[in-house]
Amino acid sequence: MHWSKKEIILNLIFWLSTGWLILSGYSIQSQEIELINGVETTRVFRSQSLLLQLAVQLAISVFLFYGQLYNMVGLGRRAKGDRIIWVSLALLLLAFGMAHLAGFLSLSGNRLPLPGNIRFGIPVFYMAAATAYGAAKAWWRSEQRRKELELDKRKAELELLRNQLQPHFLFNALNNLLALVDQDRDPKLALAFEKLSSLLRYVIHVPESGTRPVQDELDFIRNYAALQCMRFEEGEVNINWETSGDCDSLTLEPGLLLPLVENAFKYGTAPEEQSTIKITCSCWKERSFNFTISNPVHPGISVEGTGKGLQATRQRLDLLYPGKHELQIVKNEQFTVRLTIHGI
């Protein structure tokens, strides 16, 4: 847990004030009232045994308080509610057991015993205080995170508006160029313009909801892969596609798969070399999505540079699908990336 200086000072004030009230209020053994020259004077006698037992109870309460505080802050870390409840009960039972043991040991040596309601009331008080404090702390952190995400979203929307002109301009320019190409004399060039135009059309018409059917994403990367293959001689790059399941029923964040395909072409292909890129996609009825892409590792081409793109993909996954995704990378004779997303 992160502690600010202000929070540390407030914690010290809380423990000093409550500790003083408990020690001074429950350690009184007896009182005497004397009348001297018509003036009443009260003398308070405190029990060293009670002071010692109260100090032990405060030590137990420190353990209970910060244990419960750490447990409650788990609400801000998306911890499960039932786990927090069971941990709270376990901490409280442990504190009661320690308080009972301390009370049992205090009976030896003719010491004045601490009343049971006080012995068990002190842990309950600090347990309640830690629960309220932890819940407030978790709520505050959740609100801060929500505001940060909202601010990031606003920045992204502003950046999208700033760059919106460029895709539209390129899309219209490509369509104009495509009209100038003689498709009979140069069909490969015409096909390249058509594929690139299709890619830009997909990017421009991303819906406000931010998600598209998985099948649309697959069609998008098919066009991208076909455009990339045009850079090579025929037969140099082969792409094996395997798809299964109903990919129209699941939705996915647009562009999430593109960096994985980009890396496969960037680091898994080479001029005058035979390369095979294998892409497997499965869409399950349980609303689970699996995507695997593998490419060969050619001598002289380092795959160390793939870290930046994969790191950006991890960050997007953590933001969009927290706790619902798995991204695995295997490096041997093949460079393989496996992405699994649950509950989409």
UniProtKB/TrEMBL annotation:
Keywords in alphabetical order: Kinase, Membrane, Transferase, Transmembrane, Transmembrane helix
Domain Signal transduction histidine kinase internal region: from-to ranges: 156-234
A Pfam family: His_kinase
GO function terms (MF aspect): phosphorelay sensor kinase activity
Keyword Membrane recorded: yes
InterPro entries hit by this protein: Bact_2-comp_sensor_kinase, HATPase_C_sf, Sig_transdc_His_kin_internal
Annotated TM spans: 12-30, 50-72, 84-108, 120-140
GO cellular component, one term: membrane
Protein name: Histidine kinase
